[in-house]
Amino acid sequence: MRPVTERDIRAAFVNCTKGEAKRLAVPRDLATRPWDDLDFLGWRDPASPERAYMVAESGDGLVAIALRQAAPHAGHVRRSMCSLCLTVHPGDGVSLLTARRAGKTGQQGNSVGAYICTDLACSLYLRGKKEAAPGARLHESLTLEELITRTATNLTNFLNKVVE
Ligand SMILES: [Zn+2]
After folding, report:
1. DSSP readout, 85-121?
2. For the residues 9-34, what does the mean pLDDT come to?
3. pTM
4. 117: how many CB neighbours lie within 10 A of its CB?
5. Which residue in 76, 101, 143, 162 is a FRET match for 109, CA 20 to 30 A apart?
6. What are the residues whose beta carbons fall under 8 Å from the beta carbon of 98, sequence distance 6 or more?
7. Superkingdom of the source (predicted)?
8. First to last CA, the chain
């Protein structure tokens, strides 16, 4: 994706109030992020790690959403798969994140959830820039380009559920 600034990000939030978008934690190291290798930027609030955020390109603009980590399952989850990049992680490497839906439906308490890499580094796992545990990637005959396209489609579908 193209590099984005703090101001771009704050203006792109679709599922929180303007005040929340102004106050929420945006990474301070945006200038040094590996933008060429990112399909979206995801991060957590270091002060409250149950809060996660992502920003992605959408058409000509940007869409940013605020997410909350759902309470972990009782009992031990051995392995689970990210619904965006399809990387399999052991333990808590994948989290159920929920996003309040945009607009009226969100105000009525509607939200959508997805299992996503806990560190939101899907783009880097796909490109082999970040190592996941052994067995994390399925053996597929897809090219990197195809994997990226599939992840982008999964991401768009998720974002559409939040925005619609
Ligand atoms: Zn992922």
Report:
1. T--EEEGGGEEEEEEEPSHHHHHTT-EEEEEEETT--
2. 96
3. 0.92
4. 25
5. 76
6. 67, 68, 69, 70, 111, 112, 113
7. Bacteria
8. 23
Amino acid, res. 41: L
Taking residues 113-118, report their average pLDDT: 96
Token output for 11: 């203006």
Among residues 77, 101, 99, 73, the alpha carbon closest in space to that of 90 is found at: 77
CA dist 162 and 52 (Å) reads 15
The type of residue at 143 is T
Ligand 1 centre to CA of 94 (Å) is 8
Q: What's the pLDDT at 137? A: 76
**Å from CA of 120 to ligand 1 middle:** 6
Give CA–CA dist 74/108, Å, rounded.
28
Residue 86 has pLDDT above 80, yes or no: yes
Residue 26 has φ and ψ, to the nearest 5°, of -110, 140
> What distance in Å separates the CA atoms of residue 128 and residue 49, rounded to the nearest whole number?
25
